[in-house]
Amino acid sequence: MGAYVLKKLNSFIALALVCSMFTGCSNLKLNRPAEEPSGATASGGAGSNKNDGANSEAMEVEKYNAYVNLNNYMTSRFDQVLNDYFEKLGDGEQPIIEKNFSFTMLSITASNKTDLNNQFGFAEKTPAFSAVDPTVVKLKPVMNDLIVILSEAHDYYETKGYVDDNFAKSKELHTKIVKAKDAYYAAANEFLKAMTSLGAENRQKSLKKYQEQDEQIRYSALKFLADAEALSAEMEGQGVTAANILDLNMDKYKAKYDVLLEDFKNLSQHVQDDSRVKKEELDIHSLKRYVDEAKNVKVAASEIIERVNKKEKVSDFDLKNRFFVENREGTPEKFSKTLSTAIDNYNRMK
């Protein structure tokens, strides 16, 4: 097989909202994604308006973070399930059945399905997210349809059913999967685009709040991720992947890389200030994990410059397998993977 390229979802791992974005959240302990709001009080009495406002903000954070978790499952594990399937069997009308066929298909767990059902349910909850809720309503049936077929396929390949029926059901399932994934990608990209816009808006609010409160570690940590996404978007906008990395316009890339480098220097400087870490009430261990991943992002960005300067193409062998592409130095895919991990660690910061 030649180099494999599957339609990519147009979103990265999304950023959760943390408690310091809203003034009421500090009392509600909503600094983790999709945590249940607490501290609700009965209506009436002195201070009820303040509590109602805090609870309203908490509900907004909870809903947004539920959508973040949906976004992140789609662009990570679910995307991996689809990519692994199509890497093995292709995405044409008929499955590609190689000699000495063997396939360990990735699963969609019962826990995944429960989480998705919960996340889809937020489309009916307040407050309304007018740009996102309708896309979730459209996404739910097509994603669920695809999950049903993928789950059936997983059971079929796990039990080696193709040995019993000479791949008859494999062909039947493949036709259904190919048809269902087209509907899924159309709905998924609408949702992810809406989340990208909403995320950018919330990110600017967070950056402004961090500056106003002199939370320079949180500010520099978030700005680093925002500018790393801008760097990745630059490569995507140029249509550059591992397969054509040497076509990268280095002038445009370096302009955004230099901003990222300055961000990294600021972040590194601030995290060494113990008094600031204490002031911002950051957990040292989760902060360290995030900074370590931020270093990996910076290194992955630097490796791209090294590869292009050396005029070193990615081998055809590596291009055949997503795992190799995502782990080879100097590829946009490795940069994207390290960025996703860094964002996940940012979301887990306390």
TrEMBL record:
Q: Which intervals of the chain are annotated as region Disordered?
A: 34-54
Cleaved signal peptide residues: 1-16
Does the entry feature the keyword Repeat, yes or no?
A: no
Cite the InterPro entries for this sequence.
DUF3829
UniProt entry keywords in alphabetical sequence = Signal
User: Entry's PROSITE patterns?
Assistant: PROKAR_LIPOPROTEIN
| A Pfam family recorded for this sequence | DUF3829
What is the official name of this protein in its record?
A: DUF3829 domain-containing protein
Source organism (scientific name): Paenibacillus tianmuensis
